[in-house]
Amino acid sequence: MNSGLLVSCSVDEDKSGAIDLKELKHYFEKLQVKFTNEEINEIFKTCDLNDDMGISFNEFIVLLCLVYLLNKLQLA
Ligand SMILES: [Ca+2]
Fold first, then answer.
1. What is the pTM of this model?
2. 21-46: per-residue pLDDT in tens?
3. Please, which residues have CB less than 5 A from ligand 1, an ion?
4. What is the total count of domains within the chain?
5. How many A from CA of 60 to the centre of ligand 1?
6. 50 CA from centroid of ligand 1 (Å)
7. Which domain holds residue 13?
């Protein structure tokens, strides 16, 4: 796992090596991606593959793919 990348893109605010729900919300705000709280919760749960309530680097890759696809669908 490469937590350095998470830190460098300042998603992982408390540098815990994983992104929690609050950090994810901040991240989407920074990206100016408009998701409702419900959608963010859903995305978080979907991407937290091992259910440890944190998004690790590998799970973050899954998350970015999912957000990319959701955005494409919204624009289409
Ligand atoms: Ca996890």
1. 0.78
2. 999 999 999 888 888 999 999 999 99
3. 48, 50, 52, 54
4. 1
5. 9
6. 5
7. 3-75
